[in-house]
Amino acid sequence: MYWFIILFPLLIYPWGFDPYYTTTKANYLYIFVLGTWLYILLKRKYPILKPDKGDTTAIGALLLFLTLIEISTAFSPNSYTSVYGLIDRKEGLLSFFCYFSVFLFSYRMINERQLTKVIPGIAFVSMIVSAYGILQHYQLDFLPRNSAMRNYGGTYTFFDNPNFFGSYLVLVLLITLPIYLNAAAKKYSILYFSSLCLAFVALLFSNTRSGYVGVFCGMLFITAFVVVKRKHLWKKWAALIVSMIILLTLINVTENGHYGKRINSVVKESYNVATNQTTGHEGSSRFYIWIRSLPLVKEYFWVGSGPDSFEFVFPDNQDKGEFLGSTIVDKAHNEYLQIAITLGTPALMTYLLFLFFILKRAFKAVKLAQGNEKIILYGLTATIIGYLVQAFFNISTVPVAPIFWSILGMTLARSSKVINQAKNNIREPYLYENQSA
Fold it and tell me: What's the first-to-final CA gap in the chain, in angstroms?
């Protein structure tokens, strides 16, 4: 499980007639999950998946969510798609089962020693991915592109879509921040600082405004709950923020002010929505899609239209007007709206309840944690919050979702350990106090 989480962003197969990485990553995910379940069953290791007493509500909500997805699949008129997902999305019932499995494996099958190293491992791999994204921006990518991206000039690396690349960068940027702040040795501080700067530049080049907003919210959370209260971190935090501002300024100047305009458009379009001056094109036409999609929530309230079936129910795909032209809308560009329409409102409520239990457990643990462990828990919480914020403008996707679900599992595992130690009055050395890679 440890190596799968770290290496998953790099698991691609760039050869063949039309190398589409989502399909490849889905296959890798299926093989990994199947192999792990076979190992658990054949070796009779299933007792290790038993949750701690305080985590049963979260696990119960997860199982209920899976049950509701299965019901949605059973009632879907697009049964094949609901099981396997669209050919270029792969977010059917099978993928959801894999996400839940990854969560359980991360929660129960990563030992203390691996948990210490998994976040540094994620940060190191993100340097490779970010560096390739930067090269791709300058048309220096050496891997073949699929048919959908051969004439695209932006950055998407191993995620098939710049928005999905942006959601990945939100995760790795925010999860690297706590180990950067905790790093005592200069060489590790430099390593994590470099990882953060590379990811920041790659995020800019992705042009993903949802990613900008997610990272901003996550960093604001860490500033308020971690940095402000610890004067010894001010210098390190200021160095990172100033470096990011300098990088943004230099890139913006060399790119004729493009990124300044992208960031400013977030404020401008938010103002248009707030003052009811919308044109529908806000958020790259997201606002138009949301408005046209909202009536579907009532229509598919109880069981949804089936996993990954948004393309079949979005009204303008059948009756196209001038606004969309030849565009096929296969996603709601909002994870919560996507779930409500395709899986049903009860499934959405259950999913949000599951996330609430995870965050509630994390906030309880952070009050009991001491030293650098408290910063790690705050960092994990900020990562989840940042992802959930960007998900308001994006959707779940196979190349990124397993990483998010693994972070949820690690957060619950870490939180439970801290709570149980406090309950039993156990004082153990906390992770990351003596930071090492």
Answer: 18
User: How many separate domains does the chain show?
Assistant: 1
> Is 50 exceeded by the pLDDT of residue 234?
yes
Query: For residue 393, is pLDDT > 80?
Result: yes
Question: Would residue 297 count as lying in a domain?
Answer: no
**Nearest of 335, 12, 257 to residue 144 by alpha carbon:** 12
**By the 8 A CB rule, do 419 and 361 touch?**
yes
- Cα 15-30-401 angle, rounded to 5 deg: 90
Query: Which residue range is the domain that position 174 belongs to?
Result: 2-272+329-423
pLDDT at 356: 97
When pLDDT is averaged across residues 401-420 and rounded to a whole number, the result is: 95
Pairwise CA distance, residues 393 & 304, whole Å: 20
> Which tokens hold the place of 433?
């106090």
Q: Quickly count: other Cβ atoms within 10 Å of residue 226's Cβ.
A: 20
Strand runs labelled E in 342-424: none
Cβ atoms of 91 and 160 within 8 Å: the answer is: no
